[in-house]
Amino acid sequence: MSSQPAQPSAVGARELPANITVLGSGSWGTTFAKVIADAAVERGDHDLAVMLWARRDDVAAAINERHVNPEYLDEIDLPESIRATTDLKAAVEGAEVIVLAVPAQHVREQLHALKDALGEDTVIVSLVKGLERGTDERISEICASELDLDPENFAVVSGPNLAMEIARREPTATVVASASEQTAAKIAKLTNCSYFRPYRNTDVTGVEIGGVVKNVIALAVGLCDGRGFGDNSKASIITRGLAETTRLAAALGARQETMAGLAGLGDLVATCASPLSRNRTAGRFMGEGYRADELSSVMRQTAEGVKSVSAVVELAHRMRVEMPISEAMNAVVSGALDVESLATLLLARDLKSEASS
Ligand SMILES: NC(=O)c1ccc[n+]([C@@H]2O[C@H](COP(=O)([O-])OP(=O)(O)OC[C@H]3O[C@@H](n4cnc5c(N)ncnc54)[C@H](O)[C@@H]3O)[C@@H](O)[C@H]2O)c1
Ligand SMILES: O=P(O)(O)OC[C@H](O)CO
């Protein structure tokens, strides 16, 4: 037996990364930073630093000075180990893990701005549940095209994860998916704490598609609320919504069982059931008569389904997949269909066997 001390591993003496940056200090970005900070404390890691990039000076100042984010997470005390800055380059300098928590339509410009500061082995983690309009690309595809990122250095975290519930430490599970089992395991360990349980998966496409399309289906469920329809209508939309999500995911090469898991059915149920959901709320406002371009007057936060629905439908056309609920929602969002006509259109197609789709 050798008496030599164990050599540090290739990633250094630490098993897990110590420098994490979260881009976007909205509800989920701030909450996810808190999850990482709480997880570090629970495993006795007191050296881990979490940097939050904020767009606004007042948000960064509130996080640094008062350890709160009153704009997005009122009443929640943040760990003091979370620091914030509005300087993007400084935020990503030396980061081993960069977490994307900005709306999907702004991911590419963010990546473009940080490209030169990125380390060779930096892992990018997406929390984003949207498709880019114009290209119909998922965030993993944008990372590959914009950063030439090795897919093994990409992970997506998605599941029934309403930010406010997690910020209040209410228990939830999620999925961390990466083409690399090792990367998924690393991000799972980094985020695992007493109230947040990540499951690993290698089906990146399935996990991304589940998160994107559930937002569109939640708009439709919200419309039912706005029109005064009850639970039969909503359960029908949720169930048929899962069927069309699964068709699209399968056409893109994802695994069907991913859609039956936390990032598919789990997230769909949470979003469609919760009054906290911005997508369901956006749908309710539209059901009450607001146009999509009027939503910003009644809602401050991102409802990704409104922004992504046209890209979902374009992608479905390209893949020759039938998505009648998404089609109907796209027509409402674009103003081509009024909500009074929607009820019949949402579920109206040629009669067929349930098993055939
Ligand atoms: N809130 C949740 O419960 C939740 C849970 C899981 C996933 N998500 C997903 O996470 C992503 C972020 O959501 P969120 O809830 O944190 O959104 P949010 O609306 O609360 O915050 C968005 C953040 O992005 C920033 N931002 C807005 N426009 C920007 C731009 N042009 N450039 C750069 N930054 C910009 C805002 O300043 C803010 O910090 C979305 O894709 C959402 O679907 C949200
Ligand atoms: O508030 P929503 O509708 O953006 O949904 C938040 C999360 O995605 C739920 O998992």
From TrEMBL:
<dbReference type="InterPro" id="IPR013328">
    <property type="entry name" value="6PGD_dom2"/>
</dbReference>
<keyword id="KW-0560">Oxidoreductase</keyword>
<feature type="binding site">
    <location>
        <position position="72"/>
    </location>
    <ligand>
        <name>NADPH</name>
    </ligand>
</feature>
<dbReference type="Pfam" id="PF01210">
    <property type="entry name" value="NAD_Gly3P_dh_N"/>
</dbReference>
<feature type="binding site">
    <location>
        <position position="278"/>
    </location>
    <ligand>
        <name>NADPH</name>
    </ligand>
</feature>
<feature type="binding site">
    <location>
        <position position="214"/>
    </location>
    <ligand>
        <name>sn-glycerol 3-phosphate</name>
    </ligand>
</feature>
<feature type="binding site">
    <location>
        <position position="159"/>
    </location>
    <ligand>
        <name>sn-glycerol 3-phosphate</name>
    </ligand>
</feature>
<comment type="similarity">
    <text>Belongs to the NAD-dependent glycerol-3-phosphate dehydrogenase family.</text>
</comment>
<dbReference type="Pfam" id="PF07479">
    <property type="entry name" value="NAD_Gly3P_dh_C"/>
</dbReference>
<dbReference type="GO" id="GO:0047952">
    <property type="term" value="F:glycerol-3-phosphate dehydrogenase [NAD(P)+] activity"/>
</dbReference>
<protein>
    <recommendedName>
        <fullName>Glycerol-3-phosphate dehydrogenase [NAD(P)+]</fullName>
        <ecNumber>1.1.1.94</ecNumber>
    </recommendedName>
</protein>
<keyword id="KW-1208">Phospholipid metabolism</keyword>
<dbReference type="InterPro" id="IPR006168">
    <property type="entry name" value="G3P_DH_NAD-dep"/>
</dbReference>
<feature type="domain" description="Glycerol-3-phosphate dehydrogenase NAD-dependent C-terminal">
    <location>
        <begin position="203"/>
        <end position="342"/>
    </location>
</feature>
<feature type="binding site">
    <location>
        <position position="304"/>
    </location>
    <ligand>
        <name>NADPH</name>
    </ligand>
</feature>
<feature type="binding site">
    <location>
        <position position="55"/>
    </location>
    <ligand>
        <name>NADPH</name>
    </ligand>
</feature>
<comment type="pathway">
    <text>Membrane lipid metabolism; glycerophospholipid metabolism.</text>
</comment>
<keyword id="KW-0521">NADP</keyword>
<dbReference type="InterPro" id="IPR036291">
    <property type="entry name" value="NAD(P)-bd_dom_sf"/>
</dbReference>
<dbReference type="InterPro" id="IPR008927">
    <property type="entry name" value="6-PGluconate_DH-like_C_sf"/>
</dbReference>
<dbReference type="InterPro" id="IPR006109">
    <property type="entry name" value="G3P_DH_NAD-dep_C"/>
</dbReference>
<keyword id="KW-0594">Phospholipid biosynthesis</keyword>
<feature type="binding site">
    <location>
        <position position="129"/>
    </location>
    <ligand>
        <name>NADPH</name>
    </ligand>
</feature>
<feature type="binding site">
    <location>
        <position position="278"/>
    </location>
    <ligand>
        <name>sn-glycerol 3-phosphate</name>
    </ligand>
</feature>
<feature type="binding site">
    <location>
        <position position="267"/>
    </location>
    <ligand>
        <name>sn-glycerol 3-phosphate</name>
    </ligand>
</feature>
<keyword id="KW-0963">Cytoplasm</keyword>
<keyword id="KW-0444">Lipid biosynthesis</keyword>
<keyword id="KW-0547">Nucleotide-binding</keyword>
<feature type="binding site">
    <location>
        <position position="279"/>
    </location>
    <ligand>
        <name>sn-glycerol 3-phosphate</name>
    </ligand>
</feature>
<feature type="binding site">
    <location>
        <position position="277"/>
    </location>
    <ligand>
        <name>sn-glycerol 3-phosphate</name>
    </ligand>
</feature>
<feature type="binding site">
    <location>
        <position position="129"/>
    </location>
    <ligand>
        <name>sn-glycerol 3-phosphate</name>
    </ligand>
</feature>
<dbReference type="InterPro" id="IPR011128">
    <property type="entry name" value="G3P_DH_NAD-dep_N"/>
</dbReference>
<feature type="binding site">
    <location>
        <position position="163"/>
    </location>
    <ligand>
        <name>NADPH</name>
    </ligand>
</feature>
<feature type="binding site">
    <location>
        <position position="27"/>
    </location>
    <ligand>
        <name>NADPH</name>
    </ligand>
</feature>
<feature type="domain" description="Glycerol-3-phosphate dehydrogenase NAD-dependent N-terminal">
    <location>
        <begin position="19"/>
        <end position="183"/>
    </location>
</feature>
<feature type="binding site">
    <location>
        <position position="56"/>
    </location>
    <ligand>
        <name>NADPH</name>
    </ligand>
</feature>
<feature type="binding site">
    <location>
        <position position="28"/>
    </location>
    <ligand>
        <name>NADPH</name>
    </ligand>
</feature>
<keyword id="KW-0520">NAD</keyword>
<keyword id="KW-0443">Lipid metabolism</keyword>
<comment type="function">
    <text>Catalyzes the reduction of the glycolytic intermediate dihydroxyacetone phosphate (DHAP) to sn-glycerol 3-phosphate (G3P), the key precursor for phospholipid synthesis.</text>
</comment>
<feature type="active site" description="Proton acceptor">
    <location>
        <position position="214"/>
    </location>
</feature>
